[in-house]
Amino acid sequence: MSDLAGSPVQQRSADTIDLQGRAIPLSCIFGYDTVRWPLRPAVAAFFGTDSLEQLHHDQRWNPHAEDLRLPSNQITRNSWNASKTLREAVSPETTPLLHSLTRDLISQFVGPIRSVQPLPMMRVNFHGSRAILRFHRDVEYGQSPSTINIWLPVTRVYGSNSMYVECRSNAGEFEPVELEYGQALLFYGTDLLHGTLDNVSGGTRISFDFRFSL
What we know:
Layout: E1 9-12, E2 16-19, E3 22-25, E4 27-31, H1 39-47, H2 73-110, E5 115-116, E6 121-125, E7 147-153, E8 163-166, E9 174-176, E10 183-187, E11 194-196, E12 205-213
Antiparallel strand pairs: 1-4, 2-3, 4-10, 5-12, 6-12, 7-10, 7-12, 8-9, 8-11
């Protein structure tokens, strides 16, 4: 991974982790073909709108009083409910796309992949929601050292509607991940502290997350 020319990798950390004899970046941003892997259209079709970043205004999915003080636990509950409903509805369509993206694209810059999480997670995070992901390392939940995380939003992410990831292990320094649709983040979540803040960005985030093993 010494040269990004011709690679889907657009940005990567200087630090790497040795996994199965391979130098894997602690984090990297990569791009993918949204025509070959049309993940946002599947989500937009379910919600009946392509204005996904403004979905928090839709009372069908985020019912609340207009004068509700934000951030609000009610918005957090609405986010969780929408996440569950969305995942159940679109997983049959989106899971094969994500598995294909992993084996046909990600393997180009990490090498052979042994296994992929069977059913990716989906998360909706409305503007006004409290933090839904406490800061943690996945090793706290027993994640294998040979496992790598993929975080793939289908909306633009920035500031407090994004995820914050440690720049290197035990650094205690965080920045929000900034991505456009068609970009995703690979990171070593086993050891890097990561989490979210209250979403007061003005935008809704919708994302997939899953893991694969080398």
